[in-house]
Amino acid sequence: MTKKKKIFWYTIIGLFFLMQIYPVNRPEIIADNPNDLLKNEDVPENISSMLRYACYDCHSNETIYPWYASIAPVKWIVYDHTENGREDLNFSDWNTLSKSDKIGVLDDISEEVTDEKMPLKFYPITHKGAKLSKDDRQAIADWTESFMEELF
User: Fold this and answer.
1) Are 67 and 18 within 8 A, CB to CB?
2) pLDDT, position 151
């Protein structure tokens, strides 16, 4: 190997290790969430399961971080998506929402899922349980519609 190639590879390896020590705040995991949707509402088991596998990692305080979420630059992306997801919708805060906010959230869920915007396209690649079929998506949309009617 030439001297230039060695310098190149040492530089790449050095940068990789430097990236690992760059400080980034990991969104907190909270196991006890008394205001959580699934603890406070009678959500059908199939819907509950789909929400847990396809939504809860980014949209609750109960995130399960995979091993690779500790390695930069992947951790930066995962932590950012989790923070943004919780800001948009946090199922762990469900009972703190007003009735009209809950209806808005349910409407958004239905739209995002049926339009195949959620879960994000890359997410089911590494989270097999998050892959939603057309029937799954329709079941979630039907549930949100009936739940909105209950809230009225």
Assistant:
1) no
2) 85
> In the prediction, which pLDDT does 1 show?
77
pLDDT of residue 129: 86
| Alpha helices, H only, 1-152 | 3-21, 37-40, 45-54, 56-59, 74-88, 99-114, 123-126, 134-151
Instruction: Please name the amino acid found at residue 34.
Output: P
What CA–CA distance (Å, rounded) separates 105 from 91? 10
Separation of alpha carbons 101 and 98, rounded Å: 5
126 dihedral zone (left: phi>0; alpha: psi -120 to 50; beta): alpha
Place of tokens 């949309």: 141
CA 30, 141, 122, 49 torsion-angle sign: positive
- Predicted TM-score (pTM) of the model is 0.87
Q: What is the mean pLDDT of each run of 10 residues along the chain (152 residues)?
A: 90 89 89 96 96 96 94 94 96 97 96 95 89 96 95 83
The CA distance from 80 to 105, in Å, is 21
In the chain, what are the domain boundaries?
3-151
Cα 94 to the center of its chain, rounded Å: 16
